[in-house]
Amino acid sequence: MKSNPDFSKSPTIDQVGVEERVARLNTRSIKKESKVAGLKLALNMIDLTTLEGKDTEGKVRQMCYKAMHLHDALPDLPTVAAVCVYPTFVATAKAALGNSGVKVASVATAFPAGQSTLDVKIRDTQFAVDCGADEVDMVISRGEFLRGNYSFVFDEIAAVKKACGPARLKVILETGELSTLDNVRRASDIAMYAGADFIKTSTGKIQPAATAPVTLTMLEAIRDYYYETGIMVGMKPAGGISSAKAALQNLVMVRETLGAAWLDNHWFRFGASSLANDILLQLLKEATGRYQSSDYISKD
Q1: 124, 137, 189, 197: which one is catalytic?
Q2: What is the pTM of this model?
Q3: Span 253-267, pLDDT tens digits
């Protein structure tokens, strides 16, 4: 964690410029061999997620099996990066994944609204870590942020980071509630200076979520933070990315904005469970020359 700068002076964002850069990057053409490599890379960056009130241990175990066996008929497929569950299912996921190398991430801090006391948020985080979570996904207090109480948001993130111990911390900005790219940039800066290991767009519960302009704004914040501090911070767009084409466009954005070092699941993730199935369908098309029905791929 770095010292708390004056976040009221975060850079303003040229929205037109950001949208034009996104449009240019999205015109990049990726050919067959590179496309297959990119799709497999994207698969290995996915956090498979179930965050519903009707979640059960059986559903979590099934998701963990899929995380390790995305499509056994296709050779040389990677696993996903992680599974993401509520704290009460961390131990179940940890046992199911064994020594597969797939991480267990857990939401915490009164996800998704974040409307609770710091004490509750800290205990929620510690419970997830004590159960074996490798990563914690927290939500910022958007109400405090929107009324300009930046120090409150900074201090809360720093406290949760301390409670994480060895676990990595992903800080969810919930960009759909921040309204402007200027706010997205400011919230990104606060999270990184407070100690975030990752910054993440969304909970997946609010729309719009991971739009390309929002993602590019956050990537540029990470780039500037790295130039300032020498510290790498990860990025996780979450919500709204459901196609293989969009995944490849995101990888192009990362490569062009941050460089090849970030093209690794230690530094970049997708929070989009439905994305895995579309990528698998595209890989089957590349392997067989024909499209398969989605009925041949498990939904969970």
Answers
A1: 137
A2: 0.94
A3: 999 999 999 999 999
